[in-house]
Each structure stands twice: as structure tokens, then as C-alpha cells.
Amino acid sequence: MSECEGLTALVTGGASGIGRATAELLARRGARVAVLDLDPSTVGEPLTAHRADVTDDASVRAAVAAALGELGGLDILVNNAGIGARGTVESNSDAEWHHVFDVNVLGMVRTARACLPALRASAHAAVVNTCSVAATAGLPQRALYSATKGAVHALTLAMAADHVHEGIRVNCVNPGTVDTPWIGRLLDAADDPAAERAALEARQPTGRLVTAAEVAAAIAYLAGPLSGATTGTALAVDGGMQGLRPRTG
Ligand code: NAD
């Protein structure tokens, strides 16, 4: 399929998991794709890779400038870099709150700010933010993470409103629990990884984890020309987690 032929894309957090699957899918659909990541060492052709820390504005601006120089412009920004956090309002420190907001929310703001001039010059401009079902679901032990994703959801709507008249569409995807290296690390750290995995699977009515490829397909749809009338929306890719009751037996 080549529905992204002639388009250019930048994917943050594109070295792993959802971002990697998205970058590779957009490339297979014909886009020229650059990845921005804290550790892009595993990224190879046809993708190009740029090291940047989304908590560092100068590093983001330098990486975006280098990527756009190579790509010759920008049509698609996938704002995906993010980190997890476990805990309640009592267990997470102020420093943890500042850091996770810095990565998950301000990271998207910095990257969008650096990319907007190029997106304005595109005849097909789309931003897709990786949000989460945690933005709206009320998950236990995820106060900090959920608050950052609630902010990403609100940011998506506000950006969509601010830039619709410039021809820039802004949407987000809300994944459930996705089988990525992130979840692998979470399971490795659990006392009983098999029981933890079973609990994560049972939380989703489909009874299984979402795949990175399924989230990538949703992001590619929102980034591509087939969703040209869609802006300011959140597309759930969550195994029914938001809308349905989990299996009870
Ligand atoms: P992952 O850990 O596999 O990949 C995240 C990538 O982001 C890594 O390559 C990492 O190096 C990069 N990154 C992290 N901090 C960075 C920083 N400061 N600057 C630049 N790059 C940085 O994780 P994933 O599961 O693919 O998650 C990607 C996105 O999906 C995140 O925004 C996450 O919140 C969201 N998400 C994940 C799940 C899930 O269950 N895996 C569910 C809902 C939403």
C-alpha cells in the first residue's frame, strides 16, 4: 500500500514499541520517515534516526532541524515518546510528578513547537499524539501517568482548535495495554510476571494485550490522507477497555 507516498514524517520515541511499529508502517506505506529518540542506536534504513531528549528544548530543536533538513519538509508528526509511572498521589514525589509531566506532556509541546512552522507549509499536515485509555478510564495505581495522559488528551483538542484553520489536523490514539518492551520491563519487575500478565490481559474485554502493529495502524490512519475530515478526536485501540465491561468468567 502506498497511501503515504510523497509524504514525510517524524516519529518521537520511534526506536521502540508503538513508535517503532508506526515509523516502519509509515515507511512501508511510502512515507520518508525520521525517528527522534533518546536511544536511536537500533534504528536503521529505510528510517533515519536522530538522538534527542524531549525534556531538553535545545536537543529537540537541533534534532528536528536535522531531520527536516534531510526530509525537506514535514507532513506528519507522531508525538509518541513517553514513560510510565506507577503510584498514587501519596506515593509519587514532586520530583517524579515534574519529571513524568516533563517527558509525557512538555515533550510533546516542545516537539510540536519545533515542527509547526514546517507543518504549516505542508498541504497535508497531521499531528497524532499517543495518549492512553488512562486519560479517561480511572485506573488504580496510575494517578501520575493518568494525569499526564489526561493533559495530552486536552492538549490534542486545544491544538486541533488552534491549527484547524491552518490546515493542520491534530488527533490522538488511546491505546489500552500494548505488548511493547515497556510492558516487558513492567512484567520483568513484577513478583509473579505470569500472574501480572494475566491480570493485564483480563483488564481488557478482548482478553489479550493490544499489539504495537494495531496501534500503529490507527496512528497511520489518523496521519494519512484517508482521515482528512477527522480532527480533534481520540481513537481508542484498547480491546474494548473504555467502553465495555471486562470478562467476568
Ligand atoms: P517503549 O518504552 O517501548 O518506547 C518508548 C520510546 O520512547 C523508547 O524508544 C524511548 O527511548 C523513547 N523515549 C523515552 N523517553 C524519551 C525522552 N525523554 N526523549 C526521547 N525519547 C524518549 O514504550 P511504548 O509502549 O511503545 O510507549 C510509547 C507511547 O505509548 C508512550 O507515550 C506511552 O505512554 C504510550 N502508551 C503505551 C501503552 C502500553 O501499554 N505500552 C499504553 C498506552 C499508551
TrEMBL record:
Ketoreductase domain span: 7-189
Record keywords, A-Z: Oxidoreductase
InterPro entries in UniProt: KR_dom, NAD(P)-bd_dom_sf, Sc_DH/Rdtase_CS, SDR_DHRS6-like, SDR_fam
One example GO MF annotation: oxidoreductase activity
Signal peptide: none
CDD domains: SDR_c (cd05233)
Keyword Oxidoreductase tagged: yes
Superkingdom, natural source: Bacteria
Protein family membership: Belongs to the short-chain dehydrogenases/reductases (SDR) family.
Protein name: Oxidoreductase
